[in-house]
Amino acid sequence: MATIDIPQIRLNDGTTFAELGLGTYKLTGDEGVAAIEAAIGTGYRVLDTAVNYGNEREVGEAARRAIAAGVVTRDDLIVTTKIPGRHHGYDEAIASGRESNATLGVERIDLLLIHWPNPRVDKYVDTFRGMLALQSEGIVRSVGVSNFTEAMLTRLIDETGVTPAVNQVELHPYFPQGALRAFHDAHGIRTESWSPLARRSELLTEPLIRDLAEAYQVTPTQVVLRWHVQVGSTPIPKSADPDRQVENADVFGFALDAEHVEAISALERGRLWDGDPLTHEEF
Ligand code: NAP
User: Fold this and answer.
1) Cα–ligand 1 centroid distance for 133 (angstroms)
2) 241: CATH
3) Structural domain includes residue 1
């Protein structure tokens, strides 16, 4: 199978990241390992897991197999995991990162995120400080967050003096997050899109998306993923299927006209479910 060259970018701490990565939620067991290994073979380098997906072992196993097979080197991969709400706090974050690192078994965590801010618990600043301690030790390479608002990012930067490298948020044409993206761009924070395909909802059969797919001679999924690339966010589509993984990564051979990017952004209608970080908590 052909390998796709997914362009690399640099995060604000100088480390390498990519313009597109792999979501792994629900990729578990032997089938999960095989699916993740296939994706690495296709050219995926950013692998997105979390303690709460229950598949760090599988992600680590797929990475080790791909390295052993000579498909990639350890340094090619950017293994991301996330601290769950029940591990918020300085000491708890350190223990959580250590445990994730052991479960993954790939020497270090390349990018560690706070999964949800859980503002009522009010421990995300201490959690981030714990992550910075892990970074000083070398267990974690880059530190970032997920589901943070502008106000939360501002507080984190003010209180720790460190700007997170990444904020991974719900982002797709139904919820394009224009204001938050502009804030990220102004502060050097990389935007990463979760549920970039809107979880294969009716988005992929929207007349606009279908018409553009026909016009550009690509698939509806490729139109949507190319839109993410052009608005400057790293999408992490999840697919268990090697052919769909190839389809999803193959978005660097064409470009949407600016007016089409804008038209796709105008599909905005709101979140997929009630994942508002001001009220939604996950532990
Ligand atoms: P998604 O990537 O938007 O959509 C995944 C769905 O689309 C799956 O059902 C997949 O099925 C299907 N699909 C993938 N490629 C396709 C294609 N080319 N054609 C047709 N269908 C296709 O949704 P997601 O899994 O919710 O989000 C992606 C990743 O974001 C997650 O896996 C996770 O890593 C991350 N995430 C993070 C948070 C957070 O709070 N930080 C929240 C949600 C998700 P098949 O597998 O059968 O192809």
Assistant:
1) 32
2) 3.20.20.100
3) no
